[in-house]
């Protein structure tokens, strides 16, 4: 099965189930909450990939170097490749996310760059807060103001990190040699998600703190 199909099934099922539980527990349909649940689920997935970036760095770097050395035509990116079920949880398979992304920004095969450090930091610092917020959006387990403060910290960090990465991409002129379509679809849109939804999350967290209610 194509890797993208596994991702759609896993994420789609998880987000749908969590949104259903939110509706069931709060007895209301809340598109704002649904959108943030969806964003946080995606962020958790990205965090797991960022663990691969950190702890499987040597593999990523060596495969990328070999790819550049061979100068073979680039095939489809990894999410559009066949994924055997036995490799579903393989760090090596999912590490190709970064090997493929390095076609557009080689920062991810250099652990001294801002782009690399930002993503590794995001993976280690936002995984647990993301899970905490999802759980407490569905069934609050502590004072709403504490939930709101965790939200402010998480969403500000993701917002700030995305803007910092975009600045690094432009400042290092990573866009040189790239097609406009690739810049938009591979850089602007993916990173734009981590700008737009954190802004929404900041506003929602602020409202939770003011109202004292989830």
Percent in strands: under 5%
Q: Give the helix proportion (percent range).
A: over 70%
Structural class designation? mainly alpha
Low-confidence stretches: none
Broad shape:
globular
Order of helices and strands: HHHHHHH
Number of helices: 7
Description:
This protein is mostly helical and 214 residues long. 74% of the residues lie in helices and 0% in strands. The protein has 7 helices and no strands. The protein has helices at 3-26, 31-55, 57-70, 91-101, 114-138, 144-171, 180-211. The N and C termini lie far apart (40 Å). The model has no long low-confidence stretch (mean pLDDT 92).
Notable traits:
214 residues; mainly alpha; 7 helices; globular
Topology:
Blueprint: H1 3-26, H2 31-55, H3 57-70, H4 91-101, H5 114-138, H6 144-171, H7 180-211
Helix pairs in contact: 1-2, 2-5, 2-7, 3-4, 5-6, 6-7
Q: In short, what is this structure?
A:
74% of the residues lie in helices and 0% in strands. The chain has 214 residues and is mainly alpha-helical. The longest helix is centred in the last third of the chain and has 32 residues, at 180-211.
